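In response to a reviewer's request, we include the raw inputs and outputs for one of the modeled complexes. The two entities were modeled together in a single run.
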Amino acid sequence: DTAVSQTPKYLVTQMGNDKSIKCEQNLGHDTMYWYKQDSKKFLKIMFSYNNKELIINETVPNRFSPKSPDKAHLNLHINSLELGDSAVYFCASSQDRRAVPGELFFGEGSRLTVL
Amino acid sequence: AQSVTQPDIHITVSEGASLELRCNYSYGATPYLFWYVQSPGQGLQLLLKYFSGDTLVQGIKGFEAEFKRSQSSFNLRKPSVHWSDAAEYFCAARFGNEKLTFGTGTRLTIIP
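The model returned the following structure tokens for the whole complex.
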């Protein structure tokens, strides 16, 4: 069983479209994250949710909207896609942000290509 | 400002040789420190972590790292690399807030 799973793995779309990436974790963790990895492999946190509550919201365009229907799921919706949104988006989870700080479990990533 | 620096973008090592990947941080105290590995097309996997105590920590896959407060460093080492160790390696730190800050990564190439 995959601990942190993301769908889709690959996404190719046109500029201006709206797309979503879904993430689910079966580890029973309380905290989930979205990270963006650019073409130079630089990883930057975008959002973090703890028990469905938004706790980290970095300087991300408001075209990006995370949604956490329950603590096992964290989805990312992107409106009006731009070329610069092309990247690999990683979902991650951690058991408790205080108990084991920073020990994240990552999904395999969703590669988004905007044409 | 709080930051994590990996000075080496790309390192090439012969199979069987020893390896050291460098990581430095900038912070007024000791952060929580981590090394992650990313194999091609995969997510990141935790190799090891340092919170406090013994400054030499052992991780998975035969890796170890040493925390040196005087140098603000947390270098990753392996005595003998295998071809399967070829990957991208990320040092990361948590500076007391909620966020995990990653370095820019070091790509490791193994030659026969």
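As requested, we also summarize the result in words. The longest strand of chain A covers residues 43-50. Chain A is about 0% helix and 55% strand.
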